[in-house]
Amino acid sequence: MQRRERRGDHRRVRTVSELNKEKIQLFVEAVLNEGHLDLIDELVATDYIGHIACARRDVIGPDGVRWLVSSYRRSHHDMYVKVEDQIAEDDRVVTRWLAIRARTECCRGISIIRLLAGKQVDSLTECTDFAAGRQPRA
């Protein structure tokens, strides 16, 4: 699927992969970094399942994502997540990211996210917690 976009007199065709990357970037910037939890219902499917190494258990649905994000933002209010690299193919987006707290790198990870109709349906995230010097969950 492709979507046409007008820019001046030029038309540019955006692929599903590009649109999916934009959705993940929006999630990172608006939801994780700025705390716009209201966007979660727009970006996360009702049947979402997240396998996230730093979480104690799988994250289920928009409510689970809302709980996880609000918990992290409460306990790490100064944390900023920076997208370092993204690769997308069809319905999957791989994002390499870095979390920074108090101007110090605290966690680095990689997430593989599958989207359907512009919403996250499942994800696998592995990360390394620099403060603990270990990977939080095997």
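Second entry:
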Amino acid sequence: MAERWEYHLLGLYYCLKEYDCNMKTIDPHKAIDFMLKNAGAYAKAKAEVTYLEEFRKSKKAILFARATGNTIADRENYAYAHPEYREVLKGLQEAVERAEALKWELVAAQARIDVWRSQEASNRAIDRNTN
């Protein structure tokens, strides 16, 4: 059984080293550069989400106070239905979309580094078994 495993490792080694088997080469330095380049943008996008979540509450309170309804439900309905409140919600939606897109791009860059690390460890194991 050990010979078969070594043969498998040897075949994998040649596949990775010589033929590349249509696998994309991962450059961890590009992934790290991407993460460093976009960290600030992600932080800003995340801060905008937090700001808009809090501002939404303030806008509701302002519109609630401006409402002329007799009951709390009337005032609340006025605030929620007001175009200014819906505009804040639209801004919040766009901010969340930007933040989530950046977050998952950063997660993907980290995953590329993890895959590269695993490939390198496998390559070292193959080198040890073939020498």
